[in-house]
Task: structure prediction
Amino acid sequence: MYYNPFFKAIVLFFCLLVSQIASAQDNGNTYSLEACIDYALKNAVAVKNAVIDNRSAAASVKEIRADGLPQVNGEVRVIDNYNLQLVLLPARFLGETANPDSLIAAPFGVRFTGNADITLNQLIFDGTFFLGLKAAKTYKEMAQKNLRRAQIETVESIMKAYYGALISEARLELAEENYLRLDTLFRQTTAMYENGFSEKIDVDRIRVNMNNAKTQLTNLKQMNDLSIIILKFQMGMKVSEEIKLEGNLADIQSDVLQIEEQQLDYNNRIDYSINETQKELDKLNIKRFQSGYYPSLYAFTSLGANSGANSFGDLARIGSDWFSYGNYGFRLSVPIFDGMRKRFQVEQARLSLIKTENTAEQLANLIETEYSQSIINLESSMNVLDSEQENMELADEIYRISNTKFQQGVGSSFELVDAETALTNSQTNYYNALYNALISKVDYLKAIGKLDKE
Result:
């Protein structure tokens, strides 16, 4: 049968395109550790709120800076003097000749008055303003550090949840293999029993282990589902979304063993850095209250016009008489006595600084404790991991030999079941040790301040 080469090329291209699309869709739900961290740094609620706080701090700096810029205000007033004040005037002022020395009550002013003006105020000197501006910039720095702390805590939670989910997935795969191995062994032993080459007790022993393996498999499936849910929650991902993990436990274990001990530097710890920034804020707060004793100087200018009429229509009429006025000057404000308010404000700010310094000492001690503890835990967990890995390899070899002997009729089912149980326990112990080593690694990186992505 003849096939058109061009048609074959089109079919091949179409197949490749479909394969690439399917692969892209499959990879779209596959997450490595880095991908999980990147997703969480964009979607985790704690990080998003910290980003908002950072933006709010930046807006606070601009708000305080605005106080130093010219302040322009316009105002229009229309007043209805519905009950004019009366003043006593000599009768002669009103043209009375009969009794010129008598007093007559006469209305003072007109019923409707209008005024419109525009005023400009400019700060020239105010100690609290300049210190407040500096404090606002320091507060912005504090918000940035709080954002970094939220990111570090998110990275920590993601790493621990990811390692837990990855190990849970590996344990589930291994449990499935163990169950299939036992199922095969059970079928073989049953066939041997039916042919008179084995005893019923051999079948029963293997069946007990197979039932135990089935129960363990069910539990591990539930644990794996739960670990994925926890990971999604930490990432800020909806539980309904599908996710697949991408990772090699052998590479991860190698990465754990390659960690080298590093010297402790307090400045690498974000919590210590935040406390140092808080010290700066406390010091600026003291200076801000102290600067309240200094005078403040402002410049101002105003331009406006006013008018008056006995009816509102005359006041609002275009072309009515409006009289302009203007002024400018300086305003110096000198604090004299405030009941010692500022003195007590300074005292409170100093006490707050002392508390921050005390916290710094306690924090330094805590950091040293966490550092020492993380090293001990990491070394211990790696030693345990090495031992458990060796035990698992030995148990696997023992099971292989016991199974061969049993199949050849020179070994007992008791020996085989015991070897299978030991293998399963050694595998469980190995993965527990690997998880503990990974968690110790995360705690160590956090202790030395190297957990963030910077």
User: Anything to note?
Assistant: The first helix runs from residue 5 to 28. The radius of gyration is 42 Å. The longest strand covers residues 112-125. Confidence is low (pLDDT under 50) at residues 1-9, 15-19, 21-26.
